[in-house]
Write a structure and sequence with these properties.
The chain has about 160 residues and is of the alpha+beta class. The protein has five helices and four strands. Helix 1 packs across helix 2 and helix 1 crosses helix 3.
């Protein structure tokens, strides 16, 4: 018999973290495509009850089905580029996570195509929830890329905790 865990508990295992990420991916799909929970869960191959267990705070009930709220406050462990390379940080909500993802996409675009237009939007802005600023120095980004420190394809952090 498994014991029921308290609400808001952190995932204990890699499997739990992966399930939580799939639940958050389902919420993201619901927002992007304006889908109800049942259909989005089927697409992501996860049970609706599991999505409710991990991300109920991001949902509201509408006419008998669950719909995604415009944003949520569910914390996510993400990788963000710092002065010395990739660092794990906790984004407190979907809007902060989206801003970090937009920044990482701009860095990826710069590294692959040398196009800096998307990076300009982050000049002088801070990483949400931290005192550090986004790294937008072209010379520093090139140095980090040449050193092989950038893991720009890995947005979600694999650190323990979230």
């Amino acid at each position: 018999m498994s014991r029921k865990r308290k609400k808001g508990m952190l995932p204990r295992s890699a499997r739990e973290r992966a399930t939580r990420e799939r639940a958050l991916a389902t919420i993201s799909l619901m927002r992007r495509e304006r889908l109800p929970l049942k259909l989005a869960a089927r697409v992501e191959r996860i049970r609706p009850a599991t999505v409710l267990r991990y991300a109920k705070a991001a949902l509201r009930r509408s006419k008998g089905d669950y719909r995604a709220k415009a944003s949520d406050r569910i914390p996510r462990a993400l990788n963000v580029l710092g002065r010395k390379g990739m660092q794990a940080t906790t984004a407190r909500g979907s809007r902060a996570a989206s801003q970090i993802a937009r920044y990482m996409n701009a860095v990826k675009k710069f590294v692959r195509t040398n196009n800096q237009t998307d990076l300009r939007k982050f000049r002088g802005k801070r990483v949400p929830g931290t005192p550090q600023k986004f790294v937008v120095s072209l010379a520093k980004l090139k140095r980090l890329a040449d050193a092989g420190v950038l893991e720009i394809d890995k947005l979600y952090s694999r650190t323990k905790g979230l």
